[in-house]
Amino acid sequence: MAEPPPPPPSTPMPKSSPRARPRHHHAPPGLCALPAFSYNAHRGLVLGLTFLAYALYHASRKPPSIVKRALSKSWPPFHDPALLGETDVAFLAFYSLGMFGAGHLGDRLDLRLFLAAGMVGSGAAVAFFGAGYFLSLHSLVFYVFAQAIAGLLQSTGWPSVVAVVGNWFGGRRRGLIMGIWNAHTSVGNISGSIIAAAVLRYGWGWSFVVPGGLMALGGVLVFFFLAPYPEDVGFASWPPKQASGASTDEEDSSTSTAGEEDRRDAVGILKAFSIPGVLTFATCLFFAKLVAYTFLYWLPFYLTQTAIGGEYMSVTDAGYLSVLFDVGGIIGGILAGFMSDQLDARATTAAMFMYLAIPSLYAFHAYGSTSKVTNIALMMISGLFVNGPYALITTAVSADLGTHKSLKGDSRALATVTAIIDGTGSLGAALGPFVTGFISKTGWDSVFIMLILCALIAGACLSGLVKSEIQQIIQNWRNRSSDTPNGTADPGAQPLLEGSS
Fold it and tell me: Which helix (H) or strand (E) holds 420?
């Protein structure tokens, strides 16, 4: 389906009513110094900047997993792996709690300033943890506090970037576009692993300071060049509302023309929770993200503890090898987005991936030690099925629900809904690494049993939605068959299901 033409330049906006959420449409200072360019070029810039921003967020989360072995060998008080788990849970607990407030603020504040400040603050917090190396600090309280602050500040990222992309992109291809865009998570994990492993030889503190510095620089770029709304750079929100109040098939019905008054107040958290599907997907993500983040924080350590082909690998080599899990995750996110667009069945796609993650996790643990080649193949397959639904739910599903028809176009909920879903998922992300720190002492069999059970529960959470989607797919297939002669599909017929956006 062809892209819609770029929207017309905006017209001056009338004064907003007292009840309207204040909106200030100002071009970012860096763009003011550049020649004007097209709407599609602006969309490309938005994708690129938000991709870079969240890749940096994830890159700055990788150092703890890379330095775990080094800390457990030579840096009190981390001789006990369970204490490393406590720093992980401090980060993730404050991240998940901060997420709910960050999403609510993201729908009310200037997203550019909010995201830029969050990135600079997060970069400083990551570097603060690394300062413990240079100051020879051995207090567990210091490191737990540093991770708690970092988690709180990092909660600014995800609701903001999803809301910005949702403001510029929508429609039937949202799953594929956001699936490709969501590769930033794996790209960030890969680059963070490589950077942290590369500078580890100079002291583990550098594995935090360097990613933290890059994060802060990314925040500066966002401040100067990111336009959160089309109106900020002189374009109307797209598409214009139709006379009947309906929207076009290509883009979101939640947008308004630049000449219209923006009367959409940000919804409250309780109203966002009541949107159909939000609680179900949030619960699913709790278990899906538990699995994904256990790999994020413990996979390099697991690789150093497992003889692969009869040999144990170094901390640096394990850090490099672990990035292949995220390579599989990139493929999984794109594949899940594409499939969900074609079927118009987000829940069915996510559930299918979670069920397929079960045999892949078992095979990775049972046969991954056979050889390095086998380990790499099974690791990538596991990453594909584990990260595919995680990516789909936190991007396209969150954007769909944030512009759900129940909001009737009069509320702004993208950041709030994204925060509810990902914040709930992050509670699972906090629990997984924390529990792993304890049960890994009894052997890795227990850890993988936990992961397999969580993948099963994640898929089962979506059973009700899957049933409804399958019934709808069958009904649409029957309708199409009955509307064409001899049951033959009409070449000019519409796609199976139009997107929910």
Answer: helix 414-439
Instruction: Give 305-309's long-range contacts (Cβ < 8 A, gap of 24+).
Output: 305/444, 306/368, 306/369, 306/444, 307/369, 308/368, 308/369, 308/371, 308/372, 308/375, 309/369, 309/370, 309/371, 309/372
- pLDDT of res. 485: 55
Backbone angles phi, psi at 414, to 5 degrees: -55, -55
pLDDT of residue 416: 80
Backbone angles phi, psi at 65, to 5 degrees: -70, -30
What integer pLDDT is reported at residue 166 of this predicted model?
81
Domain 39-234 shares a fold with domain 268-476? yes
Given a cut of 50, the residues of the chain with pLDDT beneath it are 1-4, 8-24, 238-264, 410-411, 489-501
What pLDDT is attached to residue 25? 56
Check residue 483 and give its pLDDT. 63
Distance, in Å, from the CA atom of 476 to the CA atom of 175, rounded to the nearest integer, reads: 20
pLDDT of residue 18: 33
Nearest-angstrom CA–CA distance, 412 and 415: 8
What residue spans define the domains of the chain?
39-234, 268-476
Place of tokens 């004064």: 15
Provide the pLDDT for residue 70. Answer: 85
Count, residues in the chain: 501
Q: Cα(434)–Cα(170) distance, rounded to whole angstroms?
A: 37
**Global confidence as pTM:** 0.72
- The residue to which tokens 């609680």 are assigned: 279
Q: What class does CATH assign to 268-476?
A: mainly alpha
Bond prior to 29 in cis (omega within 30° of 0): no
Name the DSSP letter for residue 52.
Answer: H
Give me the pLDDT at residue 267, please. 58
Cα 422 to chain centroid distance, Å, stands at 8
Predicted pLDDT of residue 268 = 63
Instruction: State how far the Cα of 481 lies from the Cα of 149, in Å rounded to an integer.
Output: 58
Task: Choose which CATH entry (1.20.1250.20, 1.10.8.60, 3.30.750.24, 3.40.50.300) describes domain 39-234.
Answer: 1.20.1250.20
* Under 8 Å between Cβ of 36 and 154: no
Tokens 């309906």 identify what position?
246
